[in-house]
Sequence to fold (425 residues):
Amino acid sequence: MRQGVAIFVAAGVVAATLPFIRDHDEALLSLLGKAKVAVTGGEQPLPQKTIDPPPLAGIELQYIDDRRDVVTAPAHGKRNAELTIDPVAQQAALGFLRRGRVHEGAVVMTDIRTGRVIVWANYNHGRPRDVASEANRPSASVFKVVTGAALIEAGVSLNDKICYSGGRRRITERELEADEKRDKYCASLGMAMGRSINTVFARQAVTRLDPEKLTGAAKRLGWGLDIPFDVPIEQSSLDIPQNDRLEFARAAAGFWHTTLSPFQGANLAQTIANGGEMVRTTLVERVLDEDGEVLYQRPKQRQVFKRVLDERTAWAVARMMEQTVRNGSAFKAFHDRAGRPFLPDIAVAGKTGTLAKKEHGGETLITWWVGFAPADKPEVALSVLVTNRGPWRVKGMHVAADMLRFYFADQGVKGVRYPPGFSGP
Fold:
């Protein structure tokens, strides 16, 4: 239902991809303790002959061309890569980033069940960059998803309440100690996730977790791993303090010590939405040489690396993430001024993240959205990174809300309207 959909046609902006490719079999074996890949359903892939360099070498995502029905990117030499991207959704994502006048940003949307990339949009002032593949920005409060999973595994209940004080912008030793006189507010773990309450996560981490447990959960969910993908992806870094209680608490609450790529954000959301199963994400449909011969065809089978979370743990984390939109930090982005949802009858699970960083002689505001929808029957995972310098117009959660509105309006879901600037059929 996209006849007559008017969109902001965005200039192609993206980032550089290193001109090499991994050996997929070795990468798949190395992931998550050399777990076997489960393959279910679909057609058999085309037989592959030996090609030098490999078919997926040198794909330049900074030059994505979304002007036709089949979205493409140049590859090694005169090869051409056909991508799984939906051109209309891709243009919409770029339009939201441009309209928000962000300094840099990225939107990655995937089909949750198959792992197929629907949107891979990058925006950057200056030279083209593949921002979606870079992991040079702090995870911020998105890392609370990891801490939340580790706490559930440690036996913390969704409804267990802890009283707290302070910690809105920083965590000090004082905030780590319970004090009945100061601790006037109380919150469950679910509420703390939704409202991103730093002190609750910091205190729970120092009492219920240790560096080994938190590091283990983070690695299972993709941090510090070379996750197999069609193009090279920078690892999301992980440096959990081992002998510093305060810094450990800060890391658990999302203050520094880890980084995140937009790709990994989508991978995280996709894993939670799949009940704890990590599914391989794919972006390249085919690679053709200059004569039009098919050098590579995307396998149609769904590939599951491994179960990285117990299904009950993933369910609990998803319920916590629902609080973010229902009554937490993203409520205003997903509701109008009267409190009416932009996505009626669609529950959304997500996590926001915000950190300010001094760089280039000023302050850069880094904001994230990582989540999926519908929360009860997931269809798409969505990761959004927005960085602003100086006054800001949009944050990651605003772009995410518009992107989900666009997607479900385009699917013809009753009651969902396109965002301002877009018109339906």
Observations:
- The chain has a mean pLDDT of 90.
